[in-house]
Amino acid sequence: MLKMKMETEKILQNHAQKQKPCSPQLHHVNSKRYKAFFICFSGTKGLHMAKPTIYIDGEAGTTGLEIRKRLETRRDVDIISIDATKRKDAGERKKCLNACDLAILCLPDDAAREAVGLIDNPQTRVLDASTAFRTAPDWVYGFAELTPGQADEIRAAKRVSNPGCYPTGAVALLRPLVDAGIIPADYGVTINAISGYSGGGKELIALCENPDGSDRAAAYCLYGLDQNHKHLPEMKLYSGLAVEPVFLPSYSSAFYRGMLINIVLRLDILNQRTGKPADGAFVRETLAARYAGMKNIIVEPLQEKLEKAYVLTPLAQNETNNVQLRVFSNAGKQTVVLTACLDNLGKGASGAAVQNAELMLGLA
């Protein structure tokens, strides 16, 4: 835990030196309104257009720090920052929220709703990483690979909700198969998943890194058994299902980051219902066709015969912005196992946020 605190403080100090505060260097074009655009002075050489500005509200949290780490080496954006002593000052936060081109909210749900309520600058666009707006009809869902036109919707949107980590993998697997009619919308899907303990936030991170004998710090913990996990409405809506899936998430104190999601399908039962002659190859090709040309979705070759020692790790995509999909087929038993591997802090959070920021700000 001490190591984590030291790393966090170091990141914050580095950024404090590099970033702009939310008011002194930024000049309003129209003092009666919040900015329509910013210009900044460059010595005696006159004026030039500023780079797009980003304000991360909740920049000291797990997701906020990861986003900043991914942005810190870029030269095409400026990050404006609030005084560390005023992070909970609504007035100061309002200044920053209205003084940026893009506000990225890394906050609990209620705080995210409050932050949106503080914005009255029509030019400020918002990317929210909480669950507060993920199923809201006036917000665009920030899974760029969801449908062929989703990235364009994100580019044009004023309000974008960043996807959850578990739904990213589950929806990536399910949506193409529901759209293709392989899985009926009213089919009872069960989703199993395991995540690194970073997904539980600061409290769980502290517990797993300084175990006190609590069961919550065990190597394997199953939770969400009452089927009230906050990701369920999101999974149902964006997978195209008419009924909520059964969702059994888990986490491990053995690893900090990483995620593996799996879904088992009985093709004999599905084919009887749909009239389709789907097999493992057809399921895999459906996924491959849907994500062709999408660099952040990797569809591996069909897996049919495995070595006895074969295992699948949730760590394979750590430090990337990828989702790795696999289809394991047993033709004799007419089953397929679908898996999605991703970094819960990458494509499951901060990586997706930076990808969405690039789309919203027109960056490379």
Q: If you had to describe this structure to a student in words, what would you say it looks like?
A:
This protein is an alpha/beta fold and 364 residues long. The protein folds into 2 domains: 131 residues, Rossmann fold; 179 residues, Dihydrodipicolinate Reductase, domain 2. Helices cover 33% and strands 21% of the residues. The chain has a 7-stranded parallel beta sheet, sandwiched between helices. Helix 5 links the parallel strand 9 and strand 10. Helix 2 packs across helix 11. The longest helix is centred in the N-terminal third of the chain and has 17 residues. The chain is globular, with a radius of gyration of 22 Å.
What is the first-to-last residue Cα distance? 36 Å
Helices and strands, in order, run as HEEEEEHEHEHEEHEHEHEHEEHHEEEH
CATH architecture of the largest domain: 2-Layer Sandwich
Uncertain residue ranges: 1-6, 24-48
Structural class: alpha/beta
Overall geometry: globular
Overall pLDDT confidence: 89
So what's the CATH class of the largest domain?
Alpha Beta
Give the tally of β-strands: 17
CATH third-level topology of the largest domain: Dihydrodipicolinate Reductase, domain 2
